[in-house]
Amino acid sequence: MTNPTRTTAPAGTSSPKETDAKFKRRFMMRLVGVFIGGMFLDGYILGIIGPVTGPMRSELQLDALSLGLIAAGPLAGIFVGSPLAGWATDKFGRKPMFLVDMGLFLAASAAQFFVTSGDGAVIQLAIIRFFMGVAIGGEYSIGGPLLSEFSPPKLRGRLLGLTLIAWYVGFMVAFIVGTALHDSGTPWRIVIGTSTIIAFVLFIARLGLPESPSWLITKGRREEALAITRKYVESPEMQDSITEEINLRVIQEAQAAKNKTEIKGASFGMLFSRQNWRTTLFTSGFWFCAVTPYFAIATFADDVLHQFGFGGGWAGGVGLSALAAAGVVTTVLLIDKLGRRVLTVPGQWLCAGILLVIGVWADAPAILVLALFLAFSFFNAGYTTMTQVYPAEVFPGHLRGIGMGFAAAFSRVGAALGTFALPWAISNIGMGASMVVAAGVALLGAILSQWLAPETKGRTLAEISSDFSH
Asked: Cβ contacts of residue 407 below 8 Å, gap of 6+?
């Protein structure tokens, strides 16, 4: 006799539990997709302008200064947008800022269609590209925390690392699309405005996403956090992590009540407090030291290699870019298996040594120098992948956005220094000495990571922030 209280799903249909699990998986795929799409758009926006620089220069009569102003617009925007968006996402929430940021992308992309040909064209383009940079900076400090706060610990590193692959892919796709459209006679405004299509699709895809439970917990909204967790989170480890965050918040509130103090909200000053200065120092310093030598060498790859007896597209930009992409892919595949430290610290020591050898061995065979540069590109890109992972993991929940935003902004200082200082250094102190300076920057990053880089593989965000911020 069957139990009358038990219901059986009809053949060919899913049980409520199976349907619930499928819904949660689809949500996670959607979240990963829209964040990776945002990073793809970042790369696309920065890469699409290259193929149409010629017609832009011709029509607008751009001199070197004007072209540099347009090219530098996104870099300045990232510097401003990263910490600003980080502060806003910690104050107002991940959900609204994630949508606002893509809205800014959409508006700025569409504005490119309407750039005039008069005297004000340079200023128009520079301002538009600046706001696009603000939106790019926002992707770092909004999307990273949001994705990390929904990702299962055993997959979190891989999912965060995928964003850097998406950036490389976006940059390369932009070059291909831009070149094809330019060769077909498409006006340059239409070419650079193609990013509007991507931004529109991503804006629609982000509508209706839920708020992060971790952020809700920092605001004392525990019931909402639990409701979202039950509806959207499938991973038992993530459910336990969110419960742990709630328990930690209850303890903090009890201590604050006992001491008759208030729990402070996010601020830049808190990044340098006794509890958080090590986190800020590590993430910002590591990111700075990772990107500074790479931006310098990759930007002027042909000039650098020419002085060592090599030149040409494949050996320069193409070769270094290909090895960099391979380094990122390798790291993403291994990050949740081997861990963070082993893929962060040794590579930095190795890259410091590579650049030092290149700098001091003046008569090294050209083929060896090329091999060393390619090896540097591979290993540097490997540990640079961690710049998308560590900041989203090690900051406590109430500072995760502003912390990642500050680290991203600080890294842009390194990118700018590397890009603008290398030509001066080559002319004034020579190529060998310039490589020794680059080696010193990489060495500083290695020392910093050897000292402070934690192992976060498989750990919940609550465990990581509790251990790292004390």
From this structure: 280, 283, 284, 287, 387, 391
Write down the pLDDT at residue 317. Answer: 52
The residue that leads in pLDDT, 73 or 232, is 232
Q: Are residues 58 and 145 in the same domain?
A: yes
Tally the domains of the chain. Answer: 3
Neighbours of 41 (CB within 10 A): 27
One domain, residues 91 and 231: no
Instruction: Give the CA diameter of the chain.
Output: 92
Determine phi and psi for 35, rounding to 5 degrees: -75, -45
Judge if 220 and 199 occupy the same domain: no
Question: In Å, how far from its chain's centre is CA 147?
Answer: 12
Q: How is residue 454 written in tokens?
A: 């934690």
CB-side neighbour CA atoms (13 Å) of 180: 7
Sign of CA pseudo-dihedral 103, 133, 163, 401: negative
**What pTM value is reported for the model?**
0.84
Instruction: Name the token pair of 191.
Output: 């070419």
349 and 329, same structural domain? yes
Share of the chain above pLDDT 70, in %: 89
What CATH number did the domain enclosing 385 receive? 1.20.1250.20
Compute the distance between CA of residue 134 and CA of residue 425 in angstroms, rounded to an integer: 30
Looking at the fold, whether 190 and 325 belong to one and the same domain comes out as no
Q: How many CA atoms lie within 13 A of 255 on its CB side?
A: 8
Q: Are residues 254 and 344 in the same domain?
A: no
- pLDDT (tens digit per residue) in 39-52: 999 888 878 887 88
311 and 192 in a common domain: no
- The domain in which residue 282 lies consists of 273-457
Task: Identify which of 398, 98, 455 has the alpha carbon closest to the alpha carbon of residue 245.
Answer: 398
One-letter amino acid at 134 equals: V
Q: Say how many C-beta atoms besides its own lie within 10 A of residue 401's C-beta.
A: 36
Judge whether 456 and 315 are in contact, CB under 8 Å.
Answer: no
431 and 394 share a domain?
yes
